[in-house]
């Protein structure tokens, strides 16, 4: 946070993050009270601060203020169904040539983590996200509000039943839901020419079905792969991997080229 970037002296805007050591909270209102583990903060005190300033709880405990970033979001999102991990989101963005103005359909909103990341990167585009369970859609909506994202259009319903009513075409469609392979013909219809389809599935058998469904539906440049992230712990005695469960899901990426 240097003067050059303007962050040290610039006034805060929402959402923002307050932190002390490894503890942090996302704040997205200047009204009311916020309860931390070290006391209560009067949120109206925040609005005249600059990034780098401190705010005190009623117990006198100090938190510093910094700008919000989506990496803060992954730590703080409300948890529902298992979200896609950042490593896999990175692959989706990199392998599909996502642009700031992309139109995206995310099938299986779940906790909304993937939708949030995609909407954040596609500032001039939008994400239509579809979830069949009302309770999960509610969790995702709270997460979108927390992250201050406005370019996400949430639909509550079964994508198999409502796909015919979607009249726009997309640059990217992601399927992270049951029976993904059965939706592939419809996904092809909903894609723009040159658009990408990504199927994310934790099971290798289902991934194989998705691969062949994409092949049979004339998708091009199909790749099926897994991204593995191994964390390391560095101690005085030496360095060793600390990741116990490294598998999250398999990705199949293909392109509609007519
Ligand atoms: C693993 S979660 C998705 C997680 C999400 N990608 C994230 O990053 O938070 C799968 C979700 O798909 C939803 N789902 C399954 N079949 C669906 C369908 N036919 N239409 C809409 N949503 C569906 C489930 O209810 C579940 O919430």
From TrEMBL:
<feature type="binding site">
    <location>
        <position position="176"/>
    </location>
    <ligand>
        <name>S-adenosyl-L-methionine</name>
    </ligand>
</feature>
<dbReference type="InterPro" id="IPR049470">
    <property type="entry name" value="TRM61_C"/>
</dbReference>
<dbReference type="InterPro" id="IPR014816">
    <property type="entry name" value="tRNA_MeTrfase_Gcd14"/>
</dbReference>
<protein>
    <submittedName>
        <fullName>tRNA(1-methyladenosine) methyltransferase-related methyltransferase</fullName>
    </submittedName>
</protein>
<dbReference type="GO" id="GO:0160107">
    <property type="term" value="F:tRNA (adenine(58)-N1)-methyltransferase activity"/>
</dbReference>
<dbReference type="GO" id="GO:0030488">
    <property type="term" value="P:tRNA methylation"/>
</dbReference>
<feature type="binding site">
    <location>
        <position position="131"/>
    </location>
    <ligand>
        <name>S-adenosyl-L-methionine</name>
    </ligand>
</feature>
<dbReference type="Pfam" id="PF08704">
    <property type="entry name" value="GCD14"/>
</dbReference>
<keyword id="KW-0819">tRNA processing</keyword>
<keyword id="KW-0489">Methyltransferase</keyword>
<feature type="domain" description="tRNA (adenine(58)-N(1))-methyltransferase catalytic subunit TRM61 C-terminal">
    <location>
        <begin position="86"/>
        <end position="236"/>
    </location>
</feature>
<keyword id="KW-0808">Transferase</keyword>
<feature type="binding site">
    <location>
        <begin position="111"/>
        <end position="114"/>
    </location>
    <ligand>
        <name>S-adenosyl-L-methionine</name>
    </ligand>
</feature>
<dbReference type="InterPro" id="IPR029063">
    <property type="entry name" value="SAM-dependent_MTases_sf"/>
</dbReference>
<keyword id="KW-0949">S-adenosyl-L-methionine</keyword>
<dbReference type="GO" id="GO:0031515">
    <property type="term" value="C:tRNA (m1A) methyltransferase complex"/>
</dbReference>
């Amino acid at each position: 946070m240097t003067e050059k970037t303007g962050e040290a002296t610039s006034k805060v805007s929402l959402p923002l993050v307050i932190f002390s050591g490894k503890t942090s909270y996302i704040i997205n209102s200047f009204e009311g009270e916020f309860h931390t583990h070290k006391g209560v903060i009067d949120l109206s005190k925040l609005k005249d601060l600059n990034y780098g300033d401190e705010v005190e709880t009623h117990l006198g405990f100090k938190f510093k203020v910094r700008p919000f970033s989506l990496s803060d979001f992954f730590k703080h999102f409300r948890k529902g169904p298992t979200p896609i991990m950042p490593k896999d989101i990175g692959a989706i963005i990199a392998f599909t040539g996502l642009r700031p103005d992309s139109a995206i359909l995310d099938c299986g909103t779940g906790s909304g983590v993937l939708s949030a990341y995609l909407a954040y990167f596609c500032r001039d585009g939008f994400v239509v996200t579809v979830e069949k369970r009302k309770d999960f859609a509610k969790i995702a909506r709270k997460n979108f509000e927390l992250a201050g994202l406005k370019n996400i259009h949430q639909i509550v319903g079964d994508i198999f039943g409502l796909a015919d009513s979607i009249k726009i075409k997309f640059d990217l469609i992601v399927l992270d839901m049951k029976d993904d392979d059965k939706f592939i013909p419809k996904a092809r219809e909903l894609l723009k020419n040159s658009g990408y389809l990504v199927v994310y599935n934790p099971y290798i058998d289902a991934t194989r079905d998705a691969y062949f469904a994409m092949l049979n539906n004339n998708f091009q440049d199909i790749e099926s792969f897994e991204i593995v992230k191994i964390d390391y712990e560095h101690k005085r005695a030496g360095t060793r991997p600390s990741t116990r469960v490294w598998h999250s899901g398999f990705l199949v990426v293909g392109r509609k080229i007519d």
